[in-house]
Every structure is written in C-alpha cells, then in structure tokens.
Amino acid sequence: MECQDLNQYQLIHDPLHPLVLCYEDNLGNRFYVEPGFLYALESMKEKKREDFPRILKKMDEEIKENHKVVFTANYETPFLEMEGYIYREITDITDPLNIFVEDKSRGSDYGD
What we know:
Elements: E1 10-12, E2 21-24, E3 30-33, H1 35-47, H2 52-66, E4 68-71, E5 86-88, H3 90-94
Parallel strand pairs: 3-4, 4-5
Antiparallel strand pairs: 1-2, 2-3
C-alpha cells in the first residue's frame, strides 16, 4: 500500500507499524498516514478534485509546523498511539480551507 499523492516524501519502513504508511520529508519531519485517513484523502481527491492540491499543501504545512504528525480517521480512537506526535483528522485539514463534503449517510427510512 502506497499513496502516489505523497511521493514527494520518502516512504519509511517502520517494522513496529507495518500496516500504516510512514513518511519523512527532506527536513526529517516524520508522519504517519493511517488507513482511515488515507481512505478519506482518496475520497477528497475524487469529490473535490479542484481543491485537492490545497489539501496536500495544508498537510505539508501541518508536517512542517508540528514535525511529528499522525493523520488519523479519528483522534479519539487512533490506530496508532505515538508519544510526542499530534493527531490530525481530514476535517482538521479541510475545514480551515472551507472545503466541505456533505455526509449523506443516514439511517434507514424504513421501520422503527
């Protein structure tokens, strides 16, 4: 599993976390991309193609500002628990950019 949209970073093999993508930028800042965040990122690429470069730029800003980041689907129940890392969800990236996707999932209209 690899994310082509993050190929400007060096992919790092982390034997302690083989199911999570780990990257490092040219300044030595390290970040992890959990599968749930990757799914959300791919969804944004599909639904908000015109805004996608801004999303990637904002992620890069988070990496450079915080140096150690875990991009997660849910910061309350992350896949990884990393000491010294900050956690960012997709909405932490997209909301400040005023990029929103309507969540159309809802309960069934049938039955009680």
